[in-house]
Specification:
- The protein is an alpha/beta fold.
- The protein is built from ten helices and seven strands.
- Strands 3-2-1-4-5-6-7 form a seven-stranded parallel beta sheet, sandwiched between helices.
- Helix 1 (15-26) runs parallel beside helix 2 (38-52), helix 1 crosses helix 8 (213-226) and helix 3 runs parallel beside helix 4.
């Protein structure tokens, strides 16, 4: 019999979100999948039900809309489903400098990347506490652990927030049987770079810097069961993180500034 609890995966229609949905289903976990593209979600849900015999539900929702977290919770509760794992994965990048985009673009980004995951944690943690069991994975980034480059101005800041937020949540909730993890992958092969217009820039980077989303997902699930609070995917990125701890901050920032053009779109091409 499959479990009666469900994992809620945001941004499940592509990339790391899809990889997490598949990895969870492989481990026999029911899933609730949410993203904007219902057709993709329904196709993925059908695949998981057929291949793994678990229950998979699809709920469309745009986390840029402040009403979506409450609507998701209401839909899940009205269906009689219980969430014991929350994977806050939905995310994207905004290219260019802060002034290259209008404020609404940045406000939507903050809503998706910071406010929505925080609100979803607040909405689903009480039931996990009551049940005495829960898992929360916030998909942060290696970018949240390093000096921030020019361009994509809010991205590293948002990911850094998720790291610190996850650390606090982990300490607040561990006595309730709840594990919280900030997962920090480096560059992951996904369509995010096509969506944000950075594909041409990042395509110049060597293949060995890229991580497989399926490996990232499996490592994340293993890490949270171990009780890790912050996990950096890939030996390369763990090594870089360790080396940067030994470098004075001004030098570390200077190094990031020197090489940021290879992985960030910094020009004000979208000035309005």
């Amino acid at each position: 019999m499959p479990p009666t609890t469900y994992a809620l995966v945001t941004g499940a229609s592509a990339g790391i979100g899809t990889a997490f949905a598949r990895a969870l289903a492989e481990r026999g976990h029911n899933v609730v999948l949410t993203a904007r593209r219902l057709d993709r979600l329904e196709a993925l849900a059908a695949e998981l039900r057929e291949r793994h015999g678990i229950d998979a539900r699809a709920i469309a929702g745009d986390l840029a809309d402040p009403a979506t977290p409450a609507a998701l919770q209401a839909a899940i509760e009205s269906a009689g489903l219980s969430i014991d794992m929350l994977i806050n994965n939905a995310g994207y990048g905004v290219t260019g400098s802060l002034v290259a985009r209008d404020w609404q673009t940045h406000a939507d980004f903050i809503q998706v990347m910071v406010t929505a995951p925080t609100e979803l944690c607040r909405r689903f943690l009480p039931a996990m506490r009551q049940a005495g069991f829960g898992r929360v994975i916030n998909i942060a980034s290696f970018a949240g652990l390093m000096p921030a480059p020019a361009g994509h101005t809010l991205y590293a800041a948002a990911k850094s927030y998720l790291v610190k937020f996850s650390q606090s949540l982990a300490l607040e909730n561990r006595r309730y049987g709840i594990h919280v993890l900030a997962l920090c992958p480096g560059f992951v092969m996904s369509e995010m770079h096509d969506v944000n217009g950075a594909r041409a820039t990042v395509s110049t980077m060597p293949r060995w810097v890229w991580l497989d989303p399926n490996v990232v997902a499996r490592q994340g699930l293993d890490a949270i069961e171990r009780g890790d609070i912050v996990y950096v995917n890939g030996l390369l990125y763990r090594t870089i993180k360790a080396l940067f701890k030994l470098i004075p901050d001004p030098l570390a920032l200077a190094l990031v500034a020197r090489y940021s053009n290879s992985f960030r779109v910094t020009e004000d091409a979208h000035q309005r």
